[in-house]
Amino acid sequence: SAVISQKPSRDICQRGTSLTIQCQVDSQVTMMFWYRQQPGQSLTLIATANQGSEATYESGFVIDKFPISRPNLTFSTLTVSNMSPEDSSIYLCSVYLSTGGVGQFFGPGTRLTVL
Amino acid sequence: AQKVTQAQTEISVVEKEDVTLDCVYETRDTTYYLFWYKQPPSGELVFLIRRNSFDEQNEISGRYSWNFQKSTSSFNFTITASQVVDSAVYFCALSERFPGNTPLVFGKGTRLSVIA
């Protein structure tokens, strides 16, 4: 089945800095989704990233805080900018795969701690 | 608007007991997809099943079974003869229309603890 990888798997960052999270899929996909999971909570959609166009953000998430790139059909990045402790979460990318198992699959996640 | 409700926040069972996790959904679309995921303590989200709105057949996979009832807007998940390795948070999710083009809406999750 297709593989979704994320880098880094975890990081500890200082307040005010930025972190870029990478998501790589080993097959081409149209849409990639970025979710946030705050401690003990469910998953919340941050944005939808379509190759060749600007990402679409959900209410409560803005491009200045969470800029996203989608340079090709297998890769995307999410940056968490000017971080505060409230940004401490697991960030997950997700794609829909129709080969090697049909469903919406998630990367392993990036566990971010902001001090 | 779409919504997924998992009313059970936490469930604790003794090993070998059967357990059912409830999921109730709301949507105005006639075409939608329902999912279940397992999130063990390690944190990764493991895909368990996808079911579309036109397929009401129940599904069984080993010790896992799913009961989809459109009449009650429910998609419940049963684990038979539970094991300690089943301890995890389980999420039910909904996607309207084709899931490749639309994101998932998740329930709040049910934390299952299986005690040896």
Describe the structure.
Chain A has 115 residues and is an all-beta fold. Chain A is 0% helix and 53% strand. Chain A contains no helices and eleven strands. In chain A, the strands form two sheets. In chain A, strands 2, 4, 5, 6, 9, 10 and 11 form a seven-stranded mixed beta sheet that branches. Chain A has a four-stranded antiparallel beta sheet with strand order 1-3-8-7, with no helix packed on it. In chain A, a hairpin with a 5-residue loop joins β5 (43-50) and β6 (56-57). With 116 residues, chain B is an all-beta fold. Chain B is 0% helix and 53% strand. Chain B has strands spanning 3-5, 10-14, 19-21, 24-26, 32-39, 46-52, 59-61, 64-69, 74-79, 88-96, 105-106, 110-115. In chain B, strands 2, 5, 6, 10, 11 and 12 form a six-stranded mixed beta sheet that branches. In chain B, strands 3-9-8-7 form a four-stranded antiparallel beta sheet, with no helix packed on it. In chain B, β7 and β8 (64-69) form a beta hairpin. In chain B, 34% of the residues are buried. The chains are: A mainly beta (115), B mainly beta (116). The A-B interface holds A 29-31, 33, 35, 41-45, 48, 90, 92, 94, 96, 98, 101-106, 108-109, 111 and B 35, 37, 43-45, 47, 49-50, 91, 93, 95, 99-101, 103-109.
Question: Helix- and strand-based class of chain B?
Answer: mainly beta
Strand content of chain B: over 45%
The oligomeric state is heterodimer
The residue ranges of chain A in which pLDDT falls below 50 over 5 or more consecutive positions are none
Instruction: Work out the radius of gyration of chain B.
Output: 14 Å
Quickly give the structural class of chain A: mainly beta
Could you give the count of β-strands of chain A?
Answer: 11
Tell me the major beta sheet of chain A: 7 strands, mixed
Query: Radius of gyration of chain A over alpha carbons?
Result: 13 Å
Q: What is the overall silhouette of chain A? A: globular
The number of helical segments of chain B is: 0
Count of distinct strands of chain B: 12
Overall pLDDT confidence of chain B: 93
* Mean pLDDT metric of chain A: 92
Counting DSSP H or I runs of 4 or more residues, the number of helices of chain A is 0
